[in-house]
Specification:
Blueprint (H helix, E strand, L loop, with lengths): L10 H11 L8 E6 L3 E6 L3 E6 L2 H17 L10 E5 L9 E5 L4 E2 L8 H17 L23 H15 L5 H13 L8 E3 L8 E4 L2 E5 L6 E3 L13 H11 L3 H22 L4 H19 L1 H8 L8
Antiparallel strand pairs: 1-2, 2-3, 3-5, 4-5, 6-8, 7-10, 8-9
Length: 316
C-alpha cells in the first residue's frame, strides 16, 4: 500500500470485475502486469490490459484518458493506449476502472534500447507532436490543470519542506545545497508565458515502451493536462546523457525553459524521495538517481561521461 487512501486490488478482483461487467472476456486468464504509483495493471488474455486505480484521484484520471486519448491518437506517430471499456464500481471495488488494448513492448532501459541518442530524438519528436496537437477546445481547467503544467512558484513552499526531509534522510550522501541552488535558479526566472499545449505529464522510462531497440509506444496518460511545457522535459534526467543531449538538440528549448525544466526535475525528485522512502524504495532510488544525473550534468562533460558508464539509471 503506497497511499493512505489506497483501495486494494488483485487478480481475483480483476477476474470478478471482468466476469461481472465484460462476460465476453470472462474466461480469459488474468495475470499481474506491473504496478505504478497510481494504478496496478493486469493482462487479460493476450490482447487486453486492465488498469485498477489505487485511489479516487487516479480513478478520475482514468476518465480523462478515455475522453481524450482517442482524439489525440491520430495526431501522434507512436501508439498510445486505446480505451476499450469504461468499468464501473462493482465486485466490492468502489472505483471506476478501465480496459485497454494491450501494447507490446519493454520498458525503456539498458536491456531494451540499442541507441540512446536515437531514442532521445524519437522522444523529442513525440513531444513535439503532442505539444502541437490541436487542443480541440480543451483548456487548462479542472482535470486538465495538473500542477506540472504551471509555474514553479506555485510549489515553492512545499518543495522547500521536501529539501529539509531529504536532508534528514540522506545526510551528506548528496549535495542538496547545490541542488537547492539549481532549483532556485529556475524559481528566479520569469514564469513561462507562451501558448498552452497538450502535456503527457510523466514521460519517465517506465511509460516509454521499446521494441527492436526503438521507442514503440507511450503509455499512462493519467497526468494528461494542458499547460506550459517546462515540466514535460524533466524526465529526460532519468535517461542516459546521450539521450538527454539528443532530446535537447532536437527540440532546441531556450535556456530559460531548460533551466525551469531542470528545476522541475529536482522538485519532483526531492518530493518523491521522502514520500516513497519506506513504501516504495525502488522509486525513491530512481529519484535519487535523477538528482545525481542533474549534479553530474552541471559538473561538466567529464562527470557526465563518467555517469554514462554506470549501470542505468545512474547509480540508482
Amino acid at each position: 500500500m503506497l497511499h493512505e487512501d489506497e483501495v486494494p486490488g488483485d487478480e481475483a478482483l480483476v477476474r470478478a470485475l471482468v466476469a461481472e461487467q465484460c462476460p465476453q472476456w470472462g474466461g480469459l486468464p488474468v495475470v499481474a502486469a506491473g504496478a505504478g504509483t497510481d494504478n496496478t495493471m493486469y493482462r487479460v488474455g493476450g490482447g487486453l490490459l486492465v488498469r485498477l486505480p489505487r485511489t479516487a484521484d487516479a480513478a478520475r484520471a482514468a476518465r480523462k484518458e478515455r475522453e481524450w486519448l482517442p482524439r489525440l491518437a491520430p495526431s501522434l506517430s507512436w501508439p498510445v493506449p486505446e480505451p476499450l471499456y469504461a468499468g464501473v464500481p462493482g465486485a466490492g471495488f468502489p472505483l471506476v476502472w478501465s480496459v485497454y488494448r494491450w501494447l507490446e513492448g519493454a520498458e525503456a532501459g539498458p536491456d531494451s534500447v540499442r541507441d540512446w541518442a536515437g531514442f532521445g530524438a524519437d522522444l523529442a519528436q513525440f513531444v513535439r507532436e503532442l505539444h502541437g496537437a490541436d487542443l480541440r477546445g480543451a483548456r487548462r481547467t479542472g482535470e486538465l490543470s495538473w500542477y506540472r503544467g504551471g509555474g514553479l512558484r506555485a510549489v515553492e513552499e512545499s518543495i522547500a519542506g521536501r529539501f529539509g526531509e531529504c536532508r534528514a534522510l540522506l545526510g551528506g550522501e548528496l549535495d542538496l545545497d547545490a541542488l537547492e541552488g539549481l532549483w532556485r535558479d529556475g524559481l528566479a526566472l520569469p514564469e513561462p508565458s507562451g501558448p498552452h499545449g497538450w502535456l503527457h505529464g510523466d514521460l519517465k522510462p517506465s511509460n516509454l515502451l521499446v521494441r527492436d531497440g526503438r521507442l514503440s509506444a507511450v503509455i499512462d496518460f493519467g497526468c494528461l493536462s494542458v499547460g506550459h511545457p517546462d515540466a514535460e522535459h524533466a524526465p529526460v534526467w532519468d535517461l542516459p546523457p546521450e539521450a538527454r543531449r539528443a532530446y535537447r538538440e532536437a527540440l532546441a528549448p531556450d535556456e530559460a525553459t531548460w533551466t525551469r525544466a531542470r528545476a522541475w526535475a529536482i522538485a519532483v525528485a526531492v518530493s518523491g524521495i521522502p514520500y516513497y522512502w519506506r513504501t516504495l524504495p525502488a522509486f525513491a532510488a530512481e529519484c535519487l538517481a535523477r538528482l545525481r544525473a542533474v549534479l553530474d550534468e552541471v559538473a561538466g562533460p567529464e562527470a557526465d561521461a563518467a555517469a554514462a558508464a554506470w549501470p542505468w539509471p545512474p547509480r540508482a
